[in-house]
Specification:
By secondary structure, the protein is α/β, with parallel strands linked by helices. It folds into 3 domains: 2-21 and 326-399; 42-317, no CATH class; 423-620, 2-Layer Sandwich (Alpha-Beta Plaits). The chain contains 22 helices and 26 strands. A hairpin with a 2-residue loop joins strand 10 (204-207) and strand 11 (210-213). The radius of gyration is 46 Å and the shape is rod-shaped.
């Protein structure tokens, strides 16, 4: 079950977070974090092949004409740009409604003269009787009959209103219309057969030899070059102001400025996009740079950013979702395992290191590889797993404390229990070798005693005797190993290290003897028959720990020195001593400066091939 926790809990964390990460709330937070990458990177170097002719506030002030402008203005713009030697002219202005027939005819005739003109249309959606109707809104028939190319200018925003994607085409039924940006690329590549050279694949959009990665079924991420007005921008009025045109501003000054001749050299071999930049026309949008400069970006600049990105083939792609999901899944398990076992004080530093390292890594992928990976999901995972790990460790600690109190509360002194709670690792599963002292205490001739007394008398006096003896053992920092019938087995020096374990065992033995003498007086007064006990003490290396089977285990000690302790206690039947306490040579060497003792004999004990020296324990030296 413990191992299953390391599988189930990380899996639950993984599932819960993945559900959170697909919500609109989280997506908006993620978008804002990714926008910060653009701000940190700043404006990139651009090719200079794309320029913008804007119709802005200055344009209206100069021309002093209401929108829409007379279409002969646009025809003049085309002629002037063509004379300047432009590569392409792309209008982000819709000519979808008829105006003055003469003006319409002039624009259609002028646009039809050149093969590098791209006009704008769009896919519009209307709700009618609870159903959505779609239709393409194209330039007027007079223009399309001249064979002028047109593309869509639809711009879509994310849930937070920011534009981060470029729509490559619009689809109505089986009919597909390419965007003005894609048409611009097709013209740059001089594509003649669109059906063969423009392909729409599930994850890619092919234009000639250029493969554009898609983020949705019809859009690509925009790798913005910079904030608004990154591209060279010229005023519409300045471009149409040639020697044959007099603006309202020139009329006021009563002079001809002829700005066209000053700007002509700036348009040669350029892709020129014409669009509205005034906020009043509602074709300005929020982009990642808005949070810094608070400047909306005109739709025409968004088209320019896409064309620049596509010509440079510097696409912004998302990290493989499948690979990322596998990575996220593995990190969930690894982090949970670490945070469930590492101290919280250390894991805090690990948290900071991992989060900062990941953010640097994700920013590196963005700037160096144009690869976009979620900047917040992994840091969120790190924090969540850290918190769950803390809770897990707390529960584990509480369980350990409860286990230790239950397991050792009756066997060792309370202060030793507290030490174990502070450092549960002292309870080594499977056992460790330590130098310990063992104390064996056994009632002399207890079997005859039980035969001559009733079971109730025997149980009552045994309970009183054992209670008193165990209390003395625990008070002297000993650990009750077990009861074997009327025999008490105690160890000193485990599970908590005890420097003078032999001394404390001897002290406990003398107090047990003294307390038994007091019990003798009490029992005689109660007209109960007393009994004697023998105590044997031995020191040496023992294997101590939680030993037993997987189903049932016990904290105990085993080893040759354990058996020797039992044999020393048995010698109390053979040698008459003052306190009926015998200690082995190994114990004597550890406490000889602290105790009063007499050498008894050098004898062999059962199971030993060599003789050992034994001593009777008389007391503790007064100065100790």
């Amino acid at each position: 079950m413990k191992k299953l926790k390391f599988l189930i809990l990380p899996f639950i964390i993984f599932v819960v977070l993945r559900i959170l990460f697909v919500t609109g709330f989280w997506q908006n937070i993620e978008h804002k974090a990714k926008d910060k990458f653009f701000l940190l990177r700043g404006t990139r170097e651009i090719s200079g092949d794309i320029v913008i002719v804007e119709i802005g506030d200055d344009t209206f002030n100069t021309l002093n004409v209401r929108w829409p402008f007379p279409r002969e203005y646009h025809a003049r713009l085309i002629e002037n740009l063509e004379k300047a030697g432009v590569k392409q002219i792309i209008f982000d202005i819709e000519f979808t409604e008829k105006t003055n027939p003469t003006s319409d005819e002039l624009l259609a005739r002028t646009a039809g003269k050149y093969k590098n003109i791209i006009l704008a249309g769009k896919l519009i959606k209307t709700i009618y009787n609870y159903s959505i109707r779609e239709q393409f809104l194209s330039p007027i028939k007079l223009i399309t009959q001249k064979g002028v190319q047109w593309g869509t200018v639809n711009i879509s925003a994310d849930g937070d209103g920011f534009v981060r994607r470029y729509e490559l085409f619009q689809k109505r039924g089986k009919q597909i219309k390419l965007s003005i940006g894609v048409l611009s690329l097709a013209n740059c590549y001089k594509l003649l057969n669109f059906e063969e050279e423009v392909k729409n694949y599930p994850g890619l959009f092919k234009i000639g030899g250029n493969y554009i990665p898609k983020v949705t079924s019809k859009s690509s991420l925009i790798n913005y070059c910079g904030p608004s007005r990154t591209f060279s921008t010229y005023d519409y009025a300045d471009v149409i102001d040639d020697s044959t045109f007099t603006t309202s501003f020139e009329k006021e000054l009563e002079t001809e400025l002829n700005q066209y001749y000053d700007l002509a050299e700036n348009f040669k071999d350029k892709i020129v996009l014409i669009g509205l930049t005034s906020v009043e026309f509602h074709d300005t949008h929020h982009t990642p740079f808005f949070t810094e400069d608070k400047q909306l970006m005109a739709g025409v600049e968004i088209h320019a950013n896409f064309i620049e990105m596509a010509l440079q083939k510097d696409y912004l792609t998302e990290f493989s979702f499948v690979k990322y999901l596998i990575f996220f899944f593995l990190v969930s398990f690894i982090l949970f395992f670490i945070y469930s076992n590492v101290k919280p004080s250390l894991s805090i530093f690990l948290n900071v290191f991992l989060i900062i390292g990941y953010l640097i890594f994700s920013y590196y992928l963005f700037t160096s590889k144009s690869l976009l990976i979620s900047p917040l999901e992994i840091p969120t995972l790190i924090i969540v797993v850290y918190v769950v790990g803390l809770v897990f460790q707390y529960i584990k600690t509480v369980q350990e404390r409860k286990f230790i109190k239950q397991a050792f509360g009756h066997y060792i002194a309370p202060e030793l229990v507290n030490e174990l709670i502070k450092d549960p690792k002292k309870l080594e599963y499977g056992g460790v070798q330590k130098e310990l002292t063992v104390l064996f205490s056994d009632i002399v001739s207890f079997t005859p005693y039980t035969e001559s007394h009733s079971p109730k008398e025997t149980v009552d006096i045994l309970r009183e005797y054992l209670t008193e003896m165990v209390e003395i053992v625990t008070r002297n920092k000993g650990t009750l190993d077990k009861f074997v019938g009327d025999e008490i087995i105690a160890i000193f020096g485990a599970p908590v290290d005890l420097e003078d374990h032999a001394f404390w065992a001897c002290k406990a033995a003398l107090e047990m003897r003294e307390r038994l003498n007091e019990l003798h007086e009490k029992w005689k007064a109660e007209k109960r028959d007393p009994f004697e006990m023998g105590i044997g003490i031995n020191s040496g290396l023992l294997t101590v720990g939680n030993l037993g089977s997987e189903q049932i285990f016990d904290y105990t000690a085993i080893g040759d020195n354990m058996n020797a302790g039992a044999r020393v206690e048995a010698l109390t039947r053979n040698y008459k001593t003052k306190n009926n306490i015998i200690i082995s040579e190994s114990t004597y060497q550890l406490v000889k400066d602290s105790i009063i003792s007499n050498f008894i004999d050098e004898t062999k004990v059962k199971g030993k091939s060599i003789s050992i020296k034994i001593y009777e324990l008389l007391g503790i030296k007064k100065e100790i």
